[in-house]
Amino acid sequence: MSVYTAVTTDDLDAWLTRYALGALVEFAPIAAGIENTNYFVTTVHGRYVLTLYERLPAEELPFYLNLMAHLARAGVEVPVPAADRTGGLFSMLNGRPAGLVSRIDGVAVAAPSVDHCAAVGDALGRLHLASQTYRARLANRRGPAWWRQAARAVRPFLSAAQNELLAAEVRFQTGFGKVKLPKGAIHGDLFCDNVLFANGRVVGIIDFGFAATDFLAYDLAIAVNDWCVAGNEDGSLDAQRLEAMIGAYSAVRPLTRDERSQWPALLRAAALRFWVSRLYDLYLPRPGELTHAHDPQPFERVLRARAAAGAAPLPG
Known about the structure:
Elements: H1 9-16, E1 24-29, E2 37-43, E3 46-52, H2 61-73, E4 91-93, E5 96-102, H3 114-131, H4 144-154, H5 160-172, E6 183-186, E7 195-198, E8 201-205, E9 212-215, H6 216-227, H7 239-252, H8 257-261, H9 263-283, H10 297-309
Antiparallel strand pairs: 1-2, 2-3, 3-5, 4-5, 6-9, 7-8
Helix pairs in contact: 3-7, 4-9, 6-9, 9-10
């Protein structure tokens, strides 16, 4: 569990007076998340998720929160930000920018099936279509410049073989971001734990803390590297789940020829980004209460598998 900023009942009672949501009934920390502090909050008028943004500067928050509101209006299954009495979507709580979104009833899947992957591909395709009419722009703060900086920081903690892999992949990804591929607002972190299901349907895409303006196909590659790998100890892709996700996504938003040609590099970039992030969180953690870091080893295996696969074509 990650709770960097503690919130008391008195703190929350005072902060909630900004909203027309009624009195606080109960709240509890959420046992998930690495970047932000999250609580379940219940008031007399509804159930919400409270997020205190630990790293995001307040000036960037309108991008994330307005994106969620935009996607919700377009029919994408995302939490709806709650506006306060002034119409604002966030305000300061215990020194952190904080906001409320609607709580969605659903569960994440730990071992996704072919049907789950197809449902997520469809949902992500619809998210990307809707994001094309979202005009705000925000550079990806976990893009190539951050990969290089974080790679330098974690090298003292790695074995010779790991350092060799890291250096080789950073070299391989030189120029990433300069190719001409369709861009728009992306989720940036569409892992299994960020999608909620009910009765076999996607009912919630959550945690937009890594949303940014970036390649749409890169966002798809991030999802594939989690949804289509789980259970494969060597990091290889499950062909049936991969075909289901790509097929469902492409039925909504067909991939361009350039996206298809760049697919192997996008998969490797997505693997590198999360391997480096997890190494950084493990070896250079922030001070926090009840914190944990994800294991970097699965993404080391994924990166090795993608590099070994070379220019494997996209299915379909």
